[in-house]
Amino acid sequence: MRTTHDTTPLVLFGGTFDPVHRAHISAARSVSRVLGDAPVHLLPNAVPPHRPQPLAGGEQRLAMLELACADHPCLIPDDWELKQSGPSYSLLTLQHYREQIGNRPLVFMIGADSFASLHHWHRWQDYADLCHLAVVPRPDSPLATDKVLATFPETAPDSLMRHANGLRLMLQGPFLDVSATAIRQALAEKGDCPALEPAVVAHIHRHHLYNVAKSPSPESDTRPHER
Ligand code: ATP
Question: Which residues form the Cytidyltransferase-like domain (predicted)?
Fold first, then answer.
């Protein structure tokens, strides 16, 4: 863990974003706010190594991210992983950005479900030398392993910002029961989903993504439930 005088964090938020939804956006905004309006780069992966491959292509997922982030200056869609070849290991992205920003705090944000499986990720122990973690709660997520918890000691935002790497921030919210899997299903069945930004729904219809049903059905109500 290294101390730093340049306390402006850079936050990286990797994901499939197939498609980007309101829980992604509100989680990214929360992390940004807690860390003094820090910039958050949202990076769609090209070839996710830990899960089934995305339905929509990289360009489409990036285009939807650009629409969803348009009103939020702290949120920056980033095509770095899409431009790389081979599996999109987060480690490579973290190494790249660590080289770019010197000793500034680098923060890798993930949902609690991803955090719970971090011990299966490629060279996860090396992350602590490169970045902090910011963990966003997600309904019904199991706990991370003791080894993962011990590798990233929990801290508060001000302490995290005084260090370059190696600590963990646990956010208390938002707590949104939303998943892209459920959204893809709702789109195919009903043609709409309130957990998506309207501009993203319009893009999906325009490009006939996710086997979208022709028109939204009036009884569709898959609004995110905040707990
Ligand atoms: P899918 O249902 O296709 O698995 P997803 O909704 O989990 O998709 P991803 O793009 O796979 O979305 O997730 C990117 C990151 O966002 C991951 O770190 C994931 O844990 C986090 N995330 C996704 N949805 C939520 C949510 N509702 N609350 C908190 N974090 C979330």
Answer: 12-185
